Amino acid sequence: MLMRNRLINKMFLPAMLLICGGHLFAQDPVFSQFYSSPMSVNPALAGNGDANWRIVGNRRSQWIGEGLEPLTTTSLSFDGKLFRQPGKEENYIGGGLLFLQDMGLSGAYKSNSFHFIASSHVSLDDEDTHGLSLGLGGSYSNTLINYAQLSFAQQLGPSGFNRSLPTNEPFLSNVKPYFSMFAGLTYTYTGDNASFDIGASGYRFLKTNRSALNDPNQLDPPRYNFHADFQTFLSDRLVFNTNAIYVLESNLHSYTAGINFGRIFGEMESPIILNAGLWYRSEEAVIPYLGMVYHNIQVGMTYDVPTASSSSSFGNLKTYEFSLIFRSPSKTSHPIPCPWK
User: Fold this and answer.
1) Fewest CB within 10 angstroms: 61, 193, 208, 272, which?
2) DSSP 26
3) In contact, 295 and 270? CB cutoff 8 Å
4) Domains in the chain, please, with CATH?
């Protein structure tokens, strides 16, 4: 059985990679902890947080199973408030850098994306109860396929795969790199006992060719995100957070929504918080979340539990995701702790 699974892994996954190369959406990560990768949700969120700056890392490993090579998605970003308006520090210019990578087949497949983001936040009143943020950005993306690490049917012999044999696939090539632009808008309400954000963003406004077979009809369509979050105190030591995202891409669409409860220990200026939550991704998975904030460091972990509608395809495969956030020691006066601020 193990040898059979390895044979399937060698033949089926490379074939799917080549056949569906234009539909992998490798620059569009599907993070369970999307709230812990804010700049992949909306460029207007660059600098929009409780700290002056933050460093965020996400690592997602999916389709983990016997004899299969998992697909891993890595996100690493830095963002912050770069310039504040003298006399009215609620208005600021923000910026950030974001690196995304999908990797599969033991590194034979890699898709990289570098994002450069600028944002601006404007208070709509004297106390910044209502605010508006705008974000703009550009990205450079490439997809690398190392055919020397892949095995094809023509290379299968009595003793197994022989990679020194020709693949007899003359039309294979690496996907051409490309540049793209994206933008987003976010409205923020911040009160003493509650806060609320709602926003929309768009990526790849122009359709982009990403084919390993030089097929001009294999295009990446634009992608649009619509997101919202809400947080409030349930008591002096208990916080309630909820958020959701809706993703629209060509004829594909999905949503993820969930809630989180945080128990606060220690001083509010530099607290220790234990977080526990539950999210649901449409027709795919129920996602429990456990996290902890220790002063300026936050960690979080999720495990995707396939729903009944997807268990026939992914029931035996596991997906884990880990997030790590460092925030600046100096913070703004945001009154309500939550995992994504």
Assistant:
1) 193
2) T
3) yes
4) 2-327 (2.40.160.40)
